[in-house]
Design goal:
mainly alpha; Serine Threonine Protein Phosphatase 5, Tetratricopeptide repeat; globular; exocytosis; neurotoxin; toxin
Amino acid sequence: MASSTKLHDAVRHDRCRLISRLVAEGTPVDAVDASGNSALFVAITDGPVSAVPYLLQAGADPNFRCSEGATPVHAACRRGSRALLQQLLECGGDLRLRDASGRTPQDWALGHADPQCRRKLVAFINSK
């Protein structure tokens, strides 16, 4: 199994100590899986988000372009998480980046199913 796959599996299974060990052993923190997604993107979209601080501390890029040009910032907006978005912005995340379809993170936030969450997240984005 490739080390990037191990890293992504560790993220999906909430194994933060393994994440730290793999990165310390040289696994590139922004390595992509077979779908073209970084471990940080996977943590935000598919996994328990407890891995996010470990990945950011290890140097994961919040602006890393994953599949279809989306970034972890886009993913946090789709998830509807202001807390995740704040963490990414504090680590240099950029709200101006567009995915391959030309959509910004705010556009992804507007796609959130919960209207109240959508309003709060868009208001937060507009305050930045």
